[in-house]
UniProtKB/TrEMBL annotation:
Pfam families: Response_reg (PF00072), Trans_reg_C (PF00486). Keywords: DNA-binding, Phosphoprotein, Transcription, Transcription regulation. GO terms for cellular component: cytosol; protein-DNA complex. The keyword Ligase does not apply. GO terms for biological process: regulation of DNA-templated transcription. This is Stage 0 sporulation protein A homolog. Residues 128-234 bind DNA. The modification 4-aspartylphosphate is found at D51. One of its GO terms (molecular function) is transcription cis-regulatory region binding. It comes from the Bacteria. The keyword Transcription regulation applies. InterPro entries: CheY-like_superfamily, OmpR/PhoB-type_DNA-bd, Sig_transdc_resp-reg_C-effctor, Sig_transdc_resp-reg_receiver, WalR-like, WH-like_DNA-bd_sf. Residues 2-115 form the Response regulatory domain.
Length: 234
């Protein structure tokens, strides 16, 4: 499956190309508007990833050109999540956007979701790929968390912020392991690019418990290990 990638930052572009190819995609990397318009005519692509700011134009121009030729799903890379940027991209027909800095796993999940939604690929194993913790289900491919309603026996989606979701994933990826506050702080710094202090971590854990625990005052999912940290048991 071919992906059309436009990114003028050499480090980001090369890193993305390498990561996408490791996932089995074939990638054409372009670093300018001119190169992108020329490269588009030479092949067919399943999905486009377009940086907005380019040295000789912008990703919006490329998006317009591509959409005038054929209906291919597009994900925008943007250094800003300003509403005007998001709305403009979506109005032009983009399927999703992701803000820099981002984790490669998040981008891969967005790619898979867009490809499935647009009919490029369909997964028959989504239920098997879900992570289950008591009444909570996490769908990494869709970046989605649901809880089971005990009365209706139906899943209800839980709205988590990006940091809350990533904090939950950190616990899930280390089930049965006590994570110290220092470890969690280091991981949250790495994934967010923002400063997270000890007090902020306490707030995020409380908010996450409020959303996923049946009784946040007596948590059974994210447990406190006094003097050591937190754990989600196996």
């Amino acid at each position: 499956m071919k992906i059309f990638l436009v990114e003028d930052d050499d480090a980001i572009g090369t890193g993305l190309k390498y990561s996408l190819e490791k996932e089995g995609y074939e990638v054409l990397l372009c670093t300018s508007k001119e190169q992108a318009l020329d490269g588009w005519e030479k092949s067919q692509y399943a999905l486009c990833i377009l940086d907005i700011n380019l040295p000789d134009g912008n990703g919006y121009d490329i998006c317009k050109y591509i959409k005038s030729k054929e209906d291919v799903p597009i994900i925008f890379l943007t250094a800003s999540d300003a509403e005007v940027n998001v709305v403009m991209g979506l109005e032009m027909g983009a399927d999703d956007y992701i803000c820099k800095p981002f984790r490669i796993n998040e981008l891969m999940a967005r790619i898979r979701t867009v490809l499935r939604r647009t009919g490029k690929v369909r997964s028959t194993e989504e239920a098997d790929q879900a992570l289950t913790i008591q009444h909570i289900k996490i769908y990494p491919n869709e970046v989605k968390v649901c809880k089971l309603n005990s009365q209706t026996n139906e899943e209800e989606q839980i709205e988590l912020t990006a940091l809350e979701y990533r904090l939950l994933l950190t616990f899930c990826n280390n089930r049965g392991v006590v994570l110290s506050r220092t470890q969690l702080l280091e991981d949250m710094w790495d994934i967010s690019g923002d400063f997270v202090n000890d007090n902020t971590l306490t707030v995020y854990i409380k908010r996450l418990r409020d959303k996923i625990e049946k009784n946040p005052a007596n948590p059974t999912i994210i447990k406190t290990v006094r003097g050591m940290g937190y754990i989600i048991e196996k």
